[in-house]
Amino acid sequence: MDTDADGATDGPFDDALTPAVRAVPDDGTVEGGVAGPGPGDVTELTGPRRTLDPGIQVVWVLKGVVPSLVLGGIVGVAFALLPVGSPGVGAAVALVAFVLSAVLSVLRYRSWAYEVREDSLYLERGVITHVRTVAPYVRIQHVDASRGPIERAFGLASTVVYTAGSRGADVSIPGLSPADAEDLQARLKRLAIAAEGEDAV
């Protein structure tokens, strides 16, 4: 057994005590591992400002039918009980409510837009009150693609984004085709994972 000048002893197990070192190329990948999305990958996942599928207007109009009928029924019963009342008033109120619901659905569709940016998901919507929402990817917890009964009937779907923070911070993008909803779900998940990695660094 040999002894160095500094007192260290060379033995048969020296190689086993040598710390393992993995080569890290300049592009950030680790040998034998999988790299996270790089700047180029993030850019490929983004997209321009987009609007909803026009079919969502029909879905919103149909969802307004029941409230219109309920309102018309209540008004009709109330007027029928009056001495000079007429049950026809309820039908008129229901018709007016339905027309207003249809107009609101069209305006609502025209106000809706979303954009997948490099650092956040941007949304615009609202008729009376115009709302702009910026959801940073680092705050996204998970993303779902959902389809209600009426949406399935018209071949539409929604993407729901759940974010960290106060209650009511979740956002939903309706009026997407099932393929677009699943694609948006996958892209947002990858962008959220990339943002989480950058934030950790």
Any overview of this molecule?
The structure is a single chain. The chain has 201 residues and is of the alpha+beta class. The protein folds into two domains: 51-110, no CATH class; 119-201, Roll (PH-domain like), CATH 2.30.29. Helix content is 43%, strand content 18%. It contains seven helices and six strands. The chain has helices spanning 14-17, 39-45, 56-63, 65-80, 88-111, 149-153, 178-200, and strands spanning 113-116, 120-125, 131-136, 140-146, 157-163, 171-176. The strands form two sheets. The chain has a three-stranded antiparallel β-sheet with strand order 1-2-3. β2 and β3 form a beta hairpin. The longest helix has 24 residues, at 88-111. The protein is elongated, with a radius of gyration of 29 Å. It starts with 13 loop residues before the first helix and ends with a helix. The model is unreliable at 3-36 (pLDDT under 50).
Q: How are the elements arranged and paired?
A:
Blueprint: H1 14-17, H2 39-45, H3 56-63, H4 65-80, H5 88-111, E1 113-116, E2 120-125, E3 131-136, E4 140-146, H6 149-153, E5 157-163, E6 171-176, H7 178-200
Antiparallel strand pairs: 1-2, 2-3, 4-5, 5-6
Number of strands: 6
**CATH topological fold name of the largest domain:** PH-domain like
How many discrete domains? 2
Radius of gyration, taken over Cα atoms and rounded to an integer in Å: 29 Å
Strand sequence of the main sheet, in spatial order?
1-2-3
Q: Helix proportion of residues, in percent?
A: 40-55%
CATH class of the largest domain: Mainly Beta
Mean pLDDT, all residues:
78
The dominant shape is elongated
Query: What class do helices, strands and sheet pairing give?
Result: alpha+beta
CATH architecture of the largest domain: Roll
Largest sheet: 3 strands, antiparallel
